[in-house]
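Q: Could you fold this chain for me?
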Amino acid sequence: MGRTVTMRIGDQTGTVTLFEEDAPETTEAFWDLLPYSHAPIIPGWYVNEIGISTPRITEATENTTTDLERGNLAYWPTGPAVVYYPDTVTEYAPVGVIGTVTENVEGITRNAHRVQFETNAGTGYEPAMEIAFERGEP
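A: Sure. Below is the predicted structure, expressed as structure tokens.
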């Protein structure tokens, strides 16, 4: 089992297992960034995703796909951003999958959907929940 990262959205905390064998350069750059937190962004209004802006952590394009599974965490170099996928979706452009939520996917997903709903409802809502990542087990 690879390194893990603790992910928090609001009052929900989950564990992300990093895909170090599939995306070694990107997962190492993400690990080096931690701890990191930011207000959530909705990168695509028509795709079910939620992310946080990050500094450009790498130029690598590893483990790329447009088919994302529920619980995937990906690096989007164009943003740049780290993006969480609360549902299975097909993305319009490839992103590099760096891990997946392996503990408390239900709680993380519930809060991700809450942020998406309140943001997309056009309420002028500024998300009160931040997304935070910290190093877990090395």
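A (continued): Strands lie at 4-9, 12-18, 36-38, 50-53, 64-68, 72-76, 81-84, 89-103, 131-135.
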